[in-house]
Amino acid sequence: MRIASFNINGIKARLPRLKEWLEETRPTVACLQEIKTQDEGFPADEFEEMGYKAIWHGQKSFNGVAILSDGTAPEEVRRGLGVDGPKEGEGEQSRYIEADVNGVRIVNLYLPNGNPQPGPKFDYKLEWMAALRERLQELLASEQPTVVVGDFNVIPRDNDVWSVKAMAGDALMQPESREAYTRILNDGWTDALGLLNPRGGVWTYWDYQAGAWQRDHGFRIDHLLLSPQTADRLVSAGVDREYRGREKASDHTPVWVEIRD
Fold first, then answer.
1. Are residues 11 and 54 in contact, defined by beta-carbon separation less than 8 angstroms?
2. Residue 150 in contact with residue 220, Cβ under 8 Å?
3. pLDDT digit string (tens) for the chain, length 261 residues
4. Dihedral of CA 197/165/244/15: which sign?
5. Can you give the three-state secondary structure of 79-98, one letter per residue?
6. Residue 244 CB burial class (10 angstroms; 0-12, 13-18, ≥19)
7. Where are the beta strands (DSSP E) in 119-248?
8. Residue 13, H or E segment
9. Backbone angles phi, psi at 231, to 5 degrees
10. How many angstroms separate the CA atoms of 123 and 84, rounded?
11. 2-259: CATH topology
């Protein structure tokens, strides 16, 4: 069972690239972030034609998450963590969706960026991470096989970034962000890419600016976390790096984990 995550950075703008990736790699489950469309604008029919059933949680112009499943429909369990956005009266942003697929609980998330920091956006990031940890603790306690994927907007280690100095002031690398991520791992989750690449140097994101892709100035912020029940079934995990180099690509590239059925 291959479970993949892809911050698509606008599903309408990247639909040809997304379908190309699905056709070429055929993950069992594909979790998307930053779909950037309201619910009624989600192109579910396009995926149906390919054999994928979908659930999604959209938002106009920003955020948004979706889960695609090959052949069988994801059984939605939850959407949202109950954390309002940083602006007064904004309400909750579309950043979290949870479903069951083939006996595995799938959690798909798009964690707040937190920039600029310090400030309300960074405070929101930390509040959201605390709510996420609380929910993930509940899932651990249930002992259900669970895979948590998505754009965490956290660079966990110094060897997960091309230049520590260049990113030192960014919310993605602040001690508070890293500590919140580490607390989640210490509850019992396995970072599949981190486990299999202890020396680092594996990037999942390259900015559009300053020739970051061409110069390989990237970092790792898209993560795949496994509960103990799925960590025992881990076969492999990787990054579909080549898709970042294609025409009109997302600034992220897909990541995936494979577990035994």
1. no
2. no
3. 999 999 999 999 999 999 999 999 999 999 999 999 999 999 999 999 999 999 999 999 999 999 999 999 999 999 999 999 999 888 999 999 999 999 999 999 999 999 999 999 999 999 999 999 999 999 999 999 999 999 999 999 999 999 999 999 999 999 999 999 999 999 999 999 999 999 999 999 999 999 999 999 999 999 999 999 999 999 999 999 999 999 999 999 999 999 999
4. positive
5. ECCCCECCCCCCCECCCEEE
6. buried
7. 146-151, 190-191, 205-206, 218-219, 222-226, 234-239
8. helix 11-25
9. -60, -35
10. 12
11. Deoxyribonuclease I; Chain A (3.60.10)
Are the CB atoms for 21 and 59 separated by under 8 Å?
A: no
Place of tokens 């989640």: 184
Cα separation, 67 vs 142, whole angstroms: 22
The number of angstroms, rounded, from the C-alpha of 58 to the middle of its chain's C-alpha atoms is: 15
Residue identified by tokens 């110094």 is 158
CB 225 within 8 Å of CB 147: yes
